[in-house]
Design a protein that fits this description.
CATH topology of one domain: TIM Barrel
Number of strands: 13
Distance between the termini: 130 Å
Largest sheet: 9 strands, parallel
CATH architecture of one domain: Alpha-Beta Barrel
CATH class of one domain: Alpha Beta
Structural class: alpha/beta
Radius of gyration: 47 Å
Shape: elongated
Number of helices: 11
Helix content: 25-40%
CATH superfamily of one domain: Glycoside hydrolase/deacetylase
Length: about 425
């Protein structure tokens, strides 16, 4: 009999009771309960087989292990690292304490002169100390270390005393500080504060200027102390001790210049500072900025600019600046290396003592490049009688200049301050 027949029988025979056996033996149902009955078929739950149970157990075990590692893994790794034996070694030779004694410690004989180590605290491991490198004897047959290299001293010559600054009658009080002026008797700063030079020396002259000083104390001290006094030093106006450093440089025999910041080609992305000379400013504003630069210290001989920008192509802005320098008794060094520039022509027209740079020494700050530029200065000096080189206070620049200066006498060349080459270069 199929399932539908079992579910929907309509015979008069009473349906088997719930307690009826498979043979149909049982108690007949009461007459009032006879009729059609509906039974919901329930799906049979299969019994799991052995491999299925095993797979479920493995999955459950792996899941539990993963959860445990996620919660306790970091602690286990940290505990393992802490429990790993380690030996601590002090770089200065002082004993330190191990976290755990080694498995098989070896005996070492302590030097006779060494002090006995202190007894470690209770619960701490043994102390391990190593002798310093100085106490380790050299191996037999080992070559001794080479002596420290020392630079060959530069022959500075006898000390040269510069005239004390400020000279009476050659300074006036400005709104921003003391300003140089031409004395009533005609004395000018670029001559009074100059380093003495033998005008009868007929050798070709080379002037070397190191600029951007006063911003780094170490670089400034190196330039003052390691370069001969005939090297001219130029100071930036923004240093906190400009006046003191200029005086230190002059005490060492160096002529000094003030560096006037001017508008660079990529201004305003490259801004030299709040007192930069700009083509867009009025003449009065530029003169106000220039007077700030001139008031930073007494005793310098002139002003140097080293940026080729729009300012030097603007005659209306440039003319008042050059005229002011002339009225203050100063010289002007155009560091841009342009002998036939408008600046040189205008400076000559107003009677301003002038010079221009022939080479930047350290656009590439390497020994080879700087030596090449210095050799080029030698050739220019031999060809025209005068050459001017400008560098920055890089250690390599100071090193190469100091060594190069010592070779000039044998080459028949003279190292000269900037005042000794003014108005001597070819136009």
């Amino acid at each position: 009999m199929n399932l539908l027949a079992k579910l929907f029988r309509r015979d008069k025979a009473p349906p088997p009771d719930a307690a009826e056996s498979e043979e149909g033996v049982g108690t007949p149902e009461a007459p009032e309960t006879r009729g059609r009955r509906f039974r919901l078929p329930l799906p049979a739950i299969p019994r799991p087989s052995g491999p299925t149970v095993g797979a479920l157990v493995v999955i459950a075990g792996l899941t539990g292990l993963g959860a445990w590692l996620a919660l306790q893994g970091d602690e286990t790794v940290s505990r393992r690292v802490v429990q790993t034996p380690r030996v601590l070694v002090s770089l200065d030779g002082r004993p330190m304490v191990n976290e755990e004694p080694p498995a098989e410690p070896t005996e070492t004989k302590a030097p006779a002169a060494a002090a006995a180590p202190k007894e470690p605290a209770r619960g701490a491991g043994p102390q391990v100390s190593l002798p310093s490198l100085a106490a380790v004897p050299p191996q037999a047959g080992a070559a001794p270390p080479p002596p420290a290299a020392t630079a060959k001293p530069v022959k500075f010559g006898p000390p040269v005393q510069l005239k004390k600054a400020p000279e009476p009658g050659m300074v006036e009080r400005g709104p921003k500080g003391p300003l140089p002026i031409i004395a009533e008797d005609g004395r000018q700063a670029w001559r009074v504060y100059a380093r003495p030079f033998d005008e009868g020396d007929k050798r070709p002259r080379i002037a070397v200027i190191v600029t951007d000083l006063g911003l780094s104390a170490a670089a400034t001290a190196a330039a003052i102390q390691q370069l001969p006094g005939a090297v001219t030093l130029a100071f930036a106006p923004y240093g906190p001790r400009v006046a003191e450093l200029v005086e230190e440089a002059r005490a060492a025999g160096h002529e000094t210049l003030m560096a006037a910041p001017s508008e660079p080609p990529d201004f305003p992305r490259n801004d030299p500072g709040p007192h930069t000379l700009l083509a867009a400013l009025s003449p009065a504003e530029n003169l106000d900025r220039l007077e700030y630069v001139l008031s930073r210290a007494p005793g310098y001989v002139g002003v140097v600019t080293s940026t080729a920008g729009r300012f030097f192509g603007n005659e209306e802005a440039l003319q008042p600046v050059l005229t002011l320098l002339r009225r203050r008794g100063l010289l002007y060094l155009d560091g841009r290396g342009a002998p036939k520039s408008t600046v040189q022509q205008m400076a000559g027209a107003v009677g301003l003592p002038r010079a221009y740079g022939n080479r930047f020494l350290d656009l590439e700050a390497s020994r080879g490049a700087i030596d090449t530029r210095l050799a080029e200065l030698e050739k220019i000096a031999r060809d025209s009688g005068v050459a001017v080189g400008i560098g920055r206070p890089y250690p390599v620049t100071i090193e190469r200049i100091a060594l190069w200066v010592d070779s000039l006498e044998s080459k028949g060349l003279a190292l000269a301050p900037i005042t000794a080459v003014v108005d001597r270069q070819p136009p």
